[in-house]
Structure to design on (388 residues):
């Protein structure tokens, strides 16, 4: 229906008035497990990613307790790889007896995200049934980046994992290059094998999506597929089989996790903690794909400040901040971080203090030797004068 000019004027006025008097609506941040609905065979693994939609609000902390059906699922691993959260005051903790995964992470200066990855949890199915993955509302908080620690309104969603008995006709997949679906590997060439039967047709594909399915076009194969030069991340190989004019069978899935890239460059500095009056090594290390598995600080410190030429080495698996063993700050410091795939990154911190100490001690010993030589020379001279 076409509006007349007066009608359009009143409609515009109504919209303007409504915008003025309508209450301010704050959208709720949304925490979701993805995928929302997935099926898996008994004994296989399934990857569930926790995501946040901040609804155009800048947030800086996400804290939650995730509940899962412990009678049907076990947690195989929890990965912070690719998370938009960079600080973890409470890293993920799995309580298998209670069926929970608890965590608290943050990001300095906040961020706005529409589908930010928080965590990825890999579950292994145990028995047939329907499992649920939910956020505990009593232990789930999202904080705004407003300088006041204001809690945002949070809406949570759930995920359903249907565990079915494995079909004996479903092809069995394996990989000589990435033999464990729950482990990260550096190798970028993926090979997947299965038993090929005469008279059978096969269709398969490789995708980033866990729910991807091959098309209905049969492909020539010898029971193996190889994909070189894959990029970092999680890949899903899916395959289905049929005989003659029979319909396609159940889709078989194999997951491969690849990380061939070293962690990002380490940033570090030695700082003074005035409360404890101690020197600390503060460092930041991030791995965007598989996540950091270990951080090691190596201190090569003198046996004594008065003998800084012989060093002993202390290796400590630690987190930041790290309290220096050598509070004289004469140590050579090296930080080594390793990600879940075994890639490493090292940072050697220069130490001018050790060099100065060596010069000071060398000068002291040199002066001492000169003094001793002069004293001995004078004593021998006096002795020679006395004898003569």
């Amino acid at each position: 229906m076409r509006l007349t000019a007066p009608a359009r004027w009143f409609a515009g006025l109504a919209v303007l008035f409504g915008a003025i008097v309508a209450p301010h609506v704050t959208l709720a941040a949304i925490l979701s497990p993805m995928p929302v609905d997935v099926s898996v065979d008994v004994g296989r693994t399934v990857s569930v990613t926790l995501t946040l939609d901040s609804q155009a609000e800048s947030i800086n902390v996400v804290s939650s307790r995730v509940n899962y059906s412990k009678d049907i699922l076990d947690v195989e691993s929890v990965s912070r790889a690719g998370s938009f959260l960079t600080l973890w005051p409470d890293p993920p903790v799995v309580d298998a007896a209670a069926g929970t995964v608890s965590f608290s992470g943050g990001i300095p200066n906040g961020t706005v995200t529409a589908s930010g990855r928080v965590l990825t949890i890999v579950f292994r199915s145990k028995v047939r049934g329907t499992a649920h993955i939910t956020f505990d509302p009593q232990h789930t908080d999202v904080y705004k980046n407003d300088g006041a620690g204001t809690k945002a309104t949070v809406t949570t969603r759930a995920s359903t994992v249907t565990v079915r008995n494995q079909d004996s006709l479903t092809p069995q997949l394996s990989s000589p290059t990435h033999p464990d679906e729950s482990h990260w590997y550096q190798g970028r060439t993926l090979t997947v094998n299965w038993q090929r039967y005469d008279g059978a047709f096969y269709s398969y594909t490789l995708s980033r999506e866990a729910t991807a399915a091959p098309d209905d076009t049969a492909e020539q194969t010898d029971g193996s597929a190889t994909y070189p030069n894959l990029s970092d991340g999680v890949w899903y190989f899916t395959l289905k089989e049929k005989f003659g004019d029979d319909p396609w069978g159940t889709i078989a899935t194999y997951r491969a996790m690849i990380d061939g890239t070293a962690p990002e460059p380490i940033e570090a500095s030695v700082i003074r903690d005035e409360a404890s009056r101690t020197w600390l090594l503060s460092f930041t290390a991030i791995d965007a794909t598989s996540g950091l598995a270990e951080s090691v600080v190596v201190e090569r410190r003198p046996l004594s400040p008065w003998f800084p030429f012989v060093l002993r080495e202390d290796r400590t698996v630690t987190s930041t901040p790290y309290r220096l063993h050598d509070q004289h700050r004469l140590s050579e410091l090296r930080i080594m971080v390793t990600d879940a795939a075994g890639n490493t990154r090292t940072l050697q911190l220069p130490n001018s203090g050790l060099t100065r100490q060596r010069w000071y001690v060398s000068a002291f010993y040199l002066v001492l030797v000169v003094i001793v030589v002069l004293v001995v020379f004078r004593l021998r001279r006096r002795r020679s004068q006395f004898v003569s």
The radius of gyration is 32 Å. The chain has three domains: 26-164, 184-258, 267-361.
